[in-house]
Structure formats: C-alpha cells, structure tokens
Write a structure and sequence with these properties.
With 135 residues, the chain is mainly alpha-helical. Helix content is 64%, strand content 0%.
Length: 135
C-alpha cells in the first residue's frame, strides 16, 4: 500500500473504494456489501473497505468525521441513498472483526509505531456507530 496513515482514508484501498461508491448503481447495496465479511481471516484490503464503508455510513447518518476526503463529503451532500439506518449494526460487527485477532490490517498496525493512533481512530468510529445503532 503506497499511501498509509492512521485515518481511514489515508490509505489507497479506501480511496479507491470512494470511486467505486461514486460509480455504484445502488449506493445502499454497495455500502452493505462493503460491510460484509466472510468468516475467518480478514485480508488488509477488506479491512480497509469495511472502515471506508463505516466512515461513509457515519457521514450519511450523522456528519462526516475529520479526515474524510472532500470528494466523499461532496458525494454525501449531493446524493440520495436509500435508508441506511439499519446498517450500523452490520458495521459494528464488521469493525469488531477488523479489530480482532484474525485481521490482517490490525496485525499490520499492531507492529507499527502509530498503532495507538490508528486504534483510537477506529474505536472512535465504533463509538459513533454504537450511538447510531441505538437510535
């Protein structure tokens, strides 16, 4: 991964995901599929996609968090998306998997100097999703 930072979109896979969202025929379905994970080990790219979809969900239901690219903020402001209010529960389940032992992205970050900053970012995202899932 050429771009690598502690915020969700400081990584190439997450940024590529934005363009796929913009091009998607059904944004809700695309976000829902992006939140889905297969049982077992989660590859780093899939973990990045889960985080990108979760950030987008937060932006749709609440407000964009710091570090969201302008392109995504513009998309959220300019596009209607079918009701996604049921998706925070799926996002939480997937984030918990990304934070778990069978997650390549967590393994990579656990060896990095900035692990605590990355973990704090993901845990803050998780907290927002918890509040959104109880609405």
């Amino acid at each position: 991964m050429a771009a690598w930072g502690t915020k969700t979109f400081e990584e190439d896979t997450a940024n590529d995901w934005i363009q796929e969202l913009i091009d998607a025929d059904d944004a809700r379905e695309f976000i829902n599929e992006s939140l889905s994970t297969e049982p077992g080990f989660i590859e780093a790219d899939q973990g990045s996609i889960v985080l990108a979809a979760s950030e987008t969900l937060i932006a749709l239901l609440d407000e964009p968090r710091i570090g969201i690219p302008g392109e995504l903020v513009d998309w959220v402001g300019d596009n209607e998306c079918d009701d996604v209010s049921d998706l925070p529960v799926s996002a939480l389940e997937s984030i918990d998997r990304v934070l778990g032992e069978e997650s390549e992205i967590r393994q990579i970050w656990s060896e990095a100097e900035d692990f605590d900053e990355w973990l704090e970012n993901v845990e803050q995202m998780r907290e927002v999703l918890v509040s959104l899932s109880t609405m």
